[in-house]
Amino acid sequence: xxxxxxxxxxxxxxxxxxxxxxxxxxxxxxxxxxxxxxxxxxxxxxxxxxxxxxxxxxxxxxxxxxxxxxxxxxxxxxxxxxxxxxxxxxxxxxxxxxxxxxxxxxxxxxxxxxxxxxxxxxxxxxxxxxxxxxxxxxxxxxxxxxxxxxxxxxxxxxxxxx
Length: 162
Known about the structure:
Blueprint: H1 9-22, H2 36-47, H3 54-68, H4 74-93, H5 98-122, H6 135-155
Helix pairs in contact: 1-2, 1-3, 2-4, 2-6, 3-4, 4-5, 5-6
């Protein structure tokens, strides 16, 4: 599939990640929700750095702040920090085996949780529950599935061949 035919995949995948972040979950499972937006954005930062960079991360973060009703700029900051780290190590990360990529993504998601916790601490909000720290583990476990699904969509392999 040519690059020009796959332009729809970026906005649609980011919109799908926003929608997944809005899906209702039971109160007990809400802290375990994977950060879908970070997973999808990480994929695009690794696979198409010419189209996705810090500006896209910031813009998507602001849109997420508006969508989720969080502090304006919080998710933008979190996604820009993640994007900066990914851009810095993209050349190495891209060629890691999937298990090592998943570990690296898990580390990035944990870093994201630390940034979120620091923001909430500075604002005087209560400490997050212990389950809050398990979401990066879930994101790490989901990374291979997200990567393969996103690759299939980006490369057009999701279509049935006759």
